[in-house]
Design goal:
Layout: E1 7-11, H1 16-28, E2 33-36, H2 44-49, E3 58-61, E4 64-67, H3 69-79, H4 91-117, H5 120-141, H6 154-159, H7 166-173, H8 177-180, H9 182-192, H10 195-198, H11 204-218
Parallel strand pairs: 1-2
Antiparallel strand pairs: 1-3, 3-4
The chain binds glutathione.
Residues 12, 15, 17, 39, 54-57, 68-70 line the site of glutathione.
Protein name: glutathione transferase
Family: Belongs to the GST superfamily.
Catalytic activity: RX + glutathione = an S-substituted glutathione + a halide anion + H(+)
């Protein structure tokens, strides 16, 4: 009997990047071990497996590390390609999916972090940037049920973990995403009907509490 290669995921708490890897593994039905990292006291394994950035997530497949969440999701899609493809096979649509997943990292993540970290004028700019990036995503979504079209795909995996952070952004920024991007919220609720998503995403209140705690500990006013 051929032994299956061991899959280990290094992740941490409410990281949206770690959630991407978990959702992709769940979509593919891959059995894996999970190791929670304390990012204030990184394990020797994390430092050895991601010596460049020393960040989670890291997927360790048969002893070999794969770093960066979008690269991990793409790797999972390539290695376990027989079930539930996440990236389209068509080259143009594949390029489009990569573009929008990168947009989530460059625009959505960047602005979302500034919404809860900053205050005053800086926060107002962050709110504007964040909502604008969501509106642009909503434009790309159009009337499709998922970013991947009729099926849940790469861009959906890239963006949906942010949904459990919406309560945090909304509470710090005093706005409601649904008032600006109702279609995006319908999309998020549709994704939540998938077990891979609902079982991975954290509770919005728990995320908020952890952010409050983080700010108290690490960001002095
Ligand atoms: N671009 C990376 C971002 C990963 C990332 O920022 N991970 C954070 C947790 S959310 C981390 O490990 N931070 C530890 C550090 O910065 O030292 C990805 O997509 O995987």
């Amino acid at each position: 009997m051929v032994e299956e290669a061991k899959v280990l995921l290094l992740g941490s708490g409410f990281s949206m990047f770690g959630m991407r890897a978990k959702i992709a593994l769940a979509e593919k039905g891959i059995k894996y071990e999970y190791m929670e990292e304390d990012l204030t006291n990184k394990s020797p394994l994390l430092q050895e497996m991601n010596p460049i950035h020393k960040k989670i997530p890291v997927l360790i497949h048969d002893g070999r590390p794969i770093c960066e969440s979008l690269i991990i999701v793409e790797y999972i899609d390539m290695v376990w390609h027989n079930n539930y493809p996440l990236l389209p096979s068509d080259s143009y649509h594949k390029a489009q999916a990569r573009f929008w997943a990168d947009f989530v990292d460059q625009k959505v993540y960047n602005a979302s972090r500034r919404v809860w970290i900053s205050e005053g004028d800086e926060q107002e700019v962050a709110k504007k940037d964040f909502l604008q990036s969501l509106k642009q995503l909503e434009w790309f979504l159009g009337d499709k049920p998922y970013f991947g079209g009729d099926t849940f795909g790469f861009v959906d995996v890239a963006l949906i973990p942010f949904y459990c952070w919406f309560y945090t952004y909304e509470t710090f920024g005093n706005f409601k995403v649904e008032e600006v991007c109702p279609k995006l919220i319908s999309w998020a609720k549709r994704c939540m009907q998938k077990e891979s998503v609902s079982e991975t995403l954290a509770d919005g209140n728990d995320v908020y509490e952890s952010v409050l705690d983080y700010k108290k500990k690490f960001i002095s006013n």
